[in-house]
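[step 3/7] inverse_fold.run input=structure_tokens len=358
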């Protein structure tokens, strides 16, 4: 695997193998000095589903001739995950345990990664998802989480912007409420289909003491008559917002010490000070005048989501006043990777589920 460093040497690094990236760090002061120059670190997990030519046996017995044009995908996509769940030694290497240990030693002197400001996880290159259902995510979490790499990088004092795309794997934060000593300014999650009722249901992590931004892909549209009663709107909105309430339920809090050491605390025992949750493009609210023609064009400007925000805040206990709903048009680019949102290429006429309130 390879590393690409852009702009200046080691200033902006795209890394496909963390072990190779930190090779010789314990015996090479020059390497520590170079890591001290890194300002942006972009990690991705190499895709293990390699494309292969079919064998002669497959050509003759299975008639897989078309794959000579489009190479066949290997069937061992989940093999590394399976081995990691079976063997502790393999699991440690799979999760980059030795690499994290070497980095902890190097950063303890305040040299390596002392200028690191931005972390992007699995954005630039194709990475395996390590699961496509909640059952598989739960299986991964039960055996292999919390992964040490994301917890270590998230807690570095210089890091201000952190981004994650994949819901699970070696470079994914566990789907817990997380308390760390040095939270960054902004943690952004823009994973496809998170909390979607039509696909996987994955509860994204929440990092305490920071601004958590969740960039969705318009899960629902709510169309309301201008004559609709507020309580009717509230009932329908509550149905749409149920999955978000699951995300804010009183999950145990993962308390991280010394970057990777951890323990679990009860949710009521931790402070929510300085924690903010911004939810972009989860729901869009429209109102129409003519009840005979209740379908506004998808290009119509959606209404402010303050009424939805108010309804939701009355249902989330200690999180009240800390959750903010915004339309896609209000979403800034990801502060870590620059991603501007799925909505740039979305045909809203077919997105989401339409809910009508007369």
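[step 3/7] decode complete -> sequence:
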């Amino acid at each position: 695997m390879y590393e690409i460093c852009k702009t200046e040497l080691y200033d902006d690094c795209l890394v496909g193998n963390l072990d190779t990236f930190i090779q010789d760090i314990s015996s090479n002061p020059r390497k520590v000095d170079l890591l001290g120059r890194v300002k942006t670190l972009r990690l991705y997990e190499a895709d293990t589903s390699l494309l292969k030519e079919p064998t002669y046996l497959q050509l003759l017995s299975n008639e897989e001739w078309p794959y000579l044009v489009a190479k066949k995908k290997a069937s061992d996509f989940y093999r590394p995950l399976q081995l990691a769940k079976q063997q502790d030694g393999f699991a440690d290497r799979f999760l980059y345990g030795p690499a994290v240990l070497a980095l902890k030693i190097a950063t303890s002197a305040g040299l390596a990664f002392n200028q690191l400001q931005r972390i992007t996880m699995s954005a630039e290159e194709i990475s395996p998802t390590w699961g496509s259902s909640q059952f598989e995510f739960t299986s991964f979490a039960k055996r292999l989480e919390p992964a040490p790499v994301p917890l270590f990088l998230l807690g570095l004092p210089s890091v201000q912007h952190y981004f994650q795309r994949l819901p699970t794997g070696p470079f994914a934060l566990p789907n817990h409420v997380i308390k760390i000593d040095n939270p960054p300014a902004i943690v952004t999650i823009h994973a496809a289909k998170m909390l979607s009722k039509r696909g996987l249901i994955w509860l994204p992590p929440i990092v305490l003491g920071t601004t958590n931004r969740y960039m969705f892909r318009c899960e629902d549209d709510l169309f309301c008559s201008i004559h609709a009663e507020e309580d009717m709107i509230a009932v329908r909105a509550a149905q749409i917002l149920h999955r978000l309430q699951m995300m804010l339920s009183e999950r145990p809090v993962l308390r991280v010490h010394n970057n990777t050491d951890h323990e679990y605390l009860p949710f009521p025992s931790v402070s929510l000070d300085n924690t903010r949750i911004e939810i972009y493009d989860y729901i869009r609210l429209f109102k129409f005048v003519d009840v005979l023609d209740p379908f506004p064009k998808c290009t119509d400007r959606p209404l402010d989501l303050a009424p939805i925000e108010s309804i939701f805040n009355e249902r989330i206990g200690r999180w009240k006043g800390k959750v903010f709903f915004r339309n896609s048009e209000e979403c800034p680019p990801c502060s870590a990777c620059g991603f501007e949102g799925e909505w740039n290429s979305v045909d809203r006429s077919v997105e989401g589920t339409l809910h009508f309130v007369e």
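[step 4/7] annotate
The longest strand covers residues 220-225.
Residues 32 and 109 are 10 Å apart (CA to CA).
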